[in-house]
Amino acid sequence: MTNKAFHQLKGGLLLLVLLCIVWLINGCSRDVSFMETQRIGAEGIVRMEVSPNSRVLNADGKSELRFLVRCYYQVDTVEVQLLDERVPLNEITITSSDGKTFRANETYTTTAHNDSISFTATLDRVRAPQVKVALRQPVSLSLTPLRVPIVFVSLYTEQTKTQMENISLELLQQMVEQANKAFSGTLMPAPNGCDAAMQFYVKDYQTVKITDEEAETPEKYIQDKLLSGCDKVLYVWLMNTVRWRLREDRIHPQYTFGNPNDIPGIDFEKVNALSDIINLEPNEVGIAMTFADVYQQKTGYESRPFTRMLGRFYGLLETGINPTKYNKEKDVDYCPDTLPYFTSNGTVEKQSIPLDQSGLQYTFNSYNIMDRNSTGVSVSRDQVLRIRQVIKDCPYRQQGVTP
User: Fold this and answer.
1) Rounded distance, CA 278 to CA 284, Å?
2) Is 334 buried (19+), middle (13-18) or exposed (0-12) by CB count in 10 A?
3) Cβ contacts of 75-81, under 8 Å, gap ≥ 24
């Protein structure tokens, strides 16, 4: 190789190395810029939505209204929702029509005598559409306090004995105590909450061994042998598997001594006396739960909460509706002070059904016992009134009522 050829090769290799270095630098630079997360500050927010967690607020100075805020920023011509944890709640100001000002991460209470109250949220120059909540003045319901006895009965076979043994009296008492707190409203000062003046207590816990054959149709075994005194105590039957005849959606009052129209949403059979009822079925007078249902109550992630079961027993309906079955109902549970929602979202955060002709919808974190996937810590006043109507009119719902 001549010196000239050698120097040409050396120069070519050097140029190639330099080109590789430049390519690597540019490539890394592009990757870094792509990986960087753009932090959106308050100045980058272009639109806001604010939703109250109730359409009714008790004007008692104690019930608390909370707000969920969604913020949006713009990328080119597209609006993108800001992650919830990045919403600057402590910088968003909410002003009520009664002159109060507070931050979006604070709660609102009032003793105003207005029919309603409106709220406006602002962040710098961004203003959310105004929202309005009805005010309800405190009125005593003069409820007679009730103390409802519950008898738990575990039905088990030799194969499911271990599962039954994991059910302790202490666990059942904790489950009942949680229900008492929800029905009394002591777990949360809910905006529309009410004390139902009902206290449940464990009167007895029984275990009954049944055969594998009897376990195939537990409703028949219960019907034949375990319905004695169901007008005096509330039975809760625990078992390995709840068959369709005992499933949750079949738990509700079946009969009424009064006018069926007084409790809408349930197809009642009118009777004049208990003797008119023949072939009484377990789902008509008690509640069935699986062992797994009871275990889950302690975790806080139960799929069938005991509080919702109790609500069904006393004639409450679920507050959610499948969007495919929605037919522009104004209400789905016949309790005007609850916030009905679409069940398409299986989380605590719900999207309400349209609340007026404009299609207004609220996004809220649910807390009512009849909401699915909810903290389940409260009953509303209209729900309490419905429960009391059921207790007054429906047979096998007078447990705890003094003759």
Assistant:
1) 12
2) middle
3) 79/46, 79/47
Tens digit of pLDDT for each residue in 259-299?
999 999 999 999 999 899 988 999 999 999 999 999 988 77
How many Cα atoms are found within 13 Å in the side-chain-facing hemisphere of 112?
A: 17
Q: For residues 165 and 154, what is the distance between their CA atoms, to the nearest angstrom? A: 9
Q: Which two tokens stand for residue 99?
A: 């002159």
Pairing of strands 363-365, 198-209: unpaired
Contact status, residue 121 vs residue 205, Cβ threshold 8 Å: no
Judged by DSSP in three states, 250 sits in helix
Residue whose C-alpha is closest to residue 332's, from 322, 350, 320, 344? 320
Residues of the chain above pLDDT 70, percent: 90
**Positive/negative CA dihedral, 385, 184, 55, 364:** negative
Based on its alpha-carbon atoms, the radius of gyration of the chain, rounded to whole angstroms, reads: 30
